[in-house]
Amino acid sequence: NATQPSTQEKYRVETIAHRGASGYAPENTMSAFRKAEEMKADYFELDVQMSKDGHLVVIHDTTVNRTTNGTGNVKDLTLTELRQLDAGSKFNPTFAGEKIPTFDEVLEEFRGKIGILIELKAPELYPGIEEKVAQALKKHNMHKPKNEKIIVQSFNFESMKKFHQLLPEVPVGVLTSDPNHLSDAKIKEFATYANYVNPNLKIVNKQVVENIHAHGMKVQSWTVRSRSAVQPLLDAKVDGIITDYPDYVPRNKSN
Ligand code: G3P
Ligand code: CA
After folding, report:
1. Test site for ligand 1: of 67, 175, 203, most ligand atoms within 8 A of the Cβ
2. pLDDT at position 234, please?
3. Neighbours of ion ligand 2 (CB under 5 A)
4. Where in this chain does the record put each GP-PDE domain (predicted)?
5. The domain spanning residue 193 has which CATH number?
6. Which stretch of DSSP H or E encloses residue 210?
7. Strand pairing of 43-50 and 14-17?
8. Are 150 and 116 in contact, with CB atoms under 8 Å apart?
9. What is the value of pTM for the model shown?
10. CA-CA to 85 of 20 to 30 Å: which in 120, 181, 186, 238?
11. What is the pLDDT of residue 62?
12. Given the CA of residue 242, which atom of ligand 1 is nearest to it?
């Protein structure tokens, strides 16, 4: 009378700290990434863009105006100019002196310690950014991820197709807020190159998740900024929750 093993695997959701643990430290800074690791998030998310002189930097907006003490487009400033800016004080003066990180220093410090969800932000503004990101991952020996958790995502689907061709072993994700991108036809097309479909939480439900799973892909949804936003995503059985507050997501138990 041996009991049959359950055929249903236990559901566990992964926690992804959005722009680092950006509820607790300035977004897309080393402090926010360290906080994510300290809070035992499974991943942190970051946004990559390129300086005028071709260096990869970690910042969300295409200008430095909102998050730093400077002004101007990221693409019109050199690395030296970007590194002189204060990316911490606007969040809280206790973070004064925090810099815009280079993509390289983030990989250097966090490789193998925590998953990294890498968003190529507005790649259409930065011709060649896919090659540069691929090169950086190769340099840090992260282009054949095994136990290391690396995902590259973008709202720009052509960029993700290209990235998939450059580094086929690195999982890629498509980001969307558009419900039309969740049609059967679109999901089928995404499945030809992507491993993740990462929708805005406003357009996610159980059926959407089941359909994406049926095509062999996973779902990480964003952006949780309130405790009440968590349960609907757990009910929909998303694979990952992207949140400014990693502690809002229940952990280490079956949800
Ligand atoms: O990771 C998903 C999320 O970061 C996409 O939106 O605007 O925060 O980059 P955004
Ligand atoms: Ca992002």
Report:
1. 175
2. 98
3. 47, 119
4. 13-253
5. 3.20.20.190
6. helix 206-214
7. parallel
8. yes
9. 0.95
10. 120
11. 98
12. 1
3 state SS of 38: helix
In b/e form, how buried is each residue of 84-98, taking b as 16+ CB within 10 angstroms?
A: ebbbbbbbeeebeeb
In a domain, 134, yes or no: yes
User: Could you give the CA distance from residue 171 to residue 217 in angstroms, rounded to a whole number?
Assistant: 10
The alpha carbon of residue 86 and the mean position of all alpha carbons in its chain are separated, in whole angstroms, by 23
Print the domain residue range for 158: 14-50+103-248
The predicted complex's ipTM stands at 0.98
Neighbours of 54 (CB within 10 A): 12
Nearest ligand to the CA of 17 is: 1
Looking at the annotation, which residues are catalytic?
A: 18, 60
Tokens of 104: 């390289």
CB 17 within 8 A of CB 43: yes
- Please give the number of the atom of ligand 1 that sits closest to the Cα of 47: 9
Q: Which SS3 state, helix, strand or coil, does residue 235 take?
A: helix
CA of 2 to the centre of ligand 2 (A): 49
8 CA to middle of ligand 2, Å?
32
Total number of domains constituting the chain: 1
User: Is 62:75 a contact under the CB 8 Å cutoff?
Assistant: yes
CB-based pocket (< 6 A), ligand 1: 18, 45, 47, 60, 119, 175, 198, 222-223, 242
